[in-house]
Specification:
single chain; alpha/beta; Phosphorylase Kinase, domain 1; Aminoglycoside 3'-phosphotransferase, Chain: A, domain 2; four-stranded parallel beta sheet; 13 strands
Length: 478
């Protein structure tokens, strides 16, 4: 691919390239390179997805014709899946607000950038939409029922299931259908940028430019506004979101015949589906592919969900979905792993689980840790009197404490963990995950987790997070 990019660059620049440097990848499989020669420079892109390339190049040409602020397309060689774009530098709106975050609450320059971004968004959504060739959209030409269901299932399979969040599959599916029916009753004939967030806005010479719109399609106005204002790690204060939304609606209503009340009727429904889509991505890229950036976005998304639930902003109904979301907001693991207050302490996550459901996912992204199999111990659950009890109940505790092999098992596991905690603390590591599994995740594993947690809290100045996964699923925690 480097060969094809260099050939394309040198043909365009009419001089040899001095350097070609790969740029960091984010959430896609596209590969970007900064190519520099004596007099010129460009961003080289390689993408093996030909349909996505067709969409991006077609949209870019159209947007440039509409005088929208997108990168110049210098050259392309679609036979080899490469093209050259204007080099807009390295500063994004996200990097700018991250650097400025601690200087003032929300300085005027940052607010003005956001207002300009939203004003430009309206041009993409309305002006550019009128004669755009939607036939090149990929994978679909509109954010329709199927597209929405893809996003919702993305959230279900890559977030809810990976975090072992309990839900009733049929009831959740019913809620998904209700949400989709509601969202599709608004006007969906505008251009929907799809990934309109602060990392896709570049700042060069104090001017804003827009990138990564290859997933664009027809859709509702509300989606892209929600994408920007509820962009997880941008972490905009709610008062700022409210002011920016008011600005967007003021410009929109002045330039179109759209009514504010009609827009707002659907707005928080689109906020919800956008957050769920993003959480699916955080699950896939973070929990599954172990990419730290996506893992670190999770607690911000959870905070956004909490805001929607606490202020009753979500569409009516959706009982099962709301129950699952409420369960996520109560998950101590998310809060502990990303709490600013405890970054200087080692966090030890201790989970009880059932082998029938699988070993828990490491939410920190570090991997490693320990998994102890409690199935070698005598199972209290085989006794009728203990079946509805757990490893936190006195009768089960006494039963297990009367077994010599339980004492030996705990002595050995605590010794291993104690050694690891001392080592991790010395080396300033920030997370250690420990799992105890048994057949049902209710008796032996729960008992062992509780004993280990007691020992660690008594012996070390660390943060201990306990999670009984099967008990949470069954509603057995008091």
């Amino acid at each position: 691919m480097n060969t094809q990019l260099l050939e394309l660059f040198e043909q365009w620049a009419e001089e040899k390239a001095d350097s070609i440097t790969p740029l960091p990848q984010s959430g896609s499989y596209r590969k970007y390179f900064r190519i520099i020669s004596n007099k010129k420079n460009a961003i080289g892109v390689y993408n093996s997805d030909k349909k996505e390339n067709d969409a991006f190049i077609s949209f870019t040409k159209h947007f440039l014709n509409k005088n929208l602020l997108v990168p110049q397309l210098y050259a392309d060689d679609m036979n080899n899946d490469v093209y050259l774009l204007e080099d807009l530098g390295n500063e994004t709106l996200f990097s700018f607000i991250s650097e400025e975050k601690n200087k003032e609450d929300f300085p005027d320059k940052r607010m003005n950038y956001y207002k300009s971004v939203l004003s430009e968004l309206i041009k993409f959504q309305t002006d550019a939409s009128r004669d755009l060739d939607y036939s090149v959209c990929y994978p679909r030409n509109s954010f329709d029922r199927q597209s929405m269901m893809w996003d919702l299932n993305y959230f279900k399979y890559y977030f809810l299931k990976l975090t072992q969040t309990p839900f009733d599959e049929q009831k959740l599916e019913d809620d998904f259908n209700v949400l989709i029916e509601f969202l599709l009753t608004t006007n969906t004939e505008y251009f929907m940028y799809r990934d309109f967030q602060s990392r896709n806005v570049m700042i060069k010479n104090d001017k804003l430019y827009f990138i990564d719109y290859q997933g664009g399609r027809k859709g509702a106005l509300q989606y892209d506004v929600a994408s920007l204002l509820y962009d997880a790690k941008a972490d905009l204060p709610q008062v700022v979101r409210d002011e920016l939304l008011a600005h967007y609606l003021s410009v929109l209503c002045n330039e179109t015949n759209i009514e504010k009340d009609e827009f707002m009727k659907y707005y928080y429904g689109y906020v919800l589906i956008r957050i769920l889509q993003a959480m699916g991505a955080y699950g896939f890229r973070g929990l599954y592919e172990k990419k730290a950036h996506f893992l670190k976005s999770i607690p911000y998304a959870i905070n956004n969900i909490s805001h929607l639930l606490e202020n009753e902003l979500l569409p009516k109904g959706l009982k099962e979905l709301k129950l699952s979301l409420a369960h996520l907001t109560r998950n101590k693991s998310f809060k502990a792993l990303y709490s600013n207050d405890d970054l200087d302490k080692l966090i030890v996550s201790i989970n009880s689980f059932s082998y029938k459901s699988g070993i828990p996912v490491d939410l920190s992204g570090n991997g490693g840790g320990f998994v102890f199999d409690c199935r070698i111990l005598l199972n209290p659950g085989r006794n009728e009197e203990f079946k509805n009890l757990t490893g936190k109940d006195k009768k089960v505790i006494k039963f297990l404490e009367d077994q010599n092999d339980v004492k030996e098992f705990l002595t050995n596991t605590i010794s291993i963990v104690e050694s690891a905690v001392k080592n991790y603390t010395k080396r300033n590591f920030n997370h250690l995950m420990i799992n105890f599994g048994c057949t049902g995740g209710q008796h032996r594993s729960v008992y062992c987790v509780e004993r280990l947690a007691e020992f660690l809290n008594r012996s070390f100045d660390i943060t201990v997070v306990v999670k009984h996964i099967e008990m949470e699923k069954k509603g057995m925690l008091k």
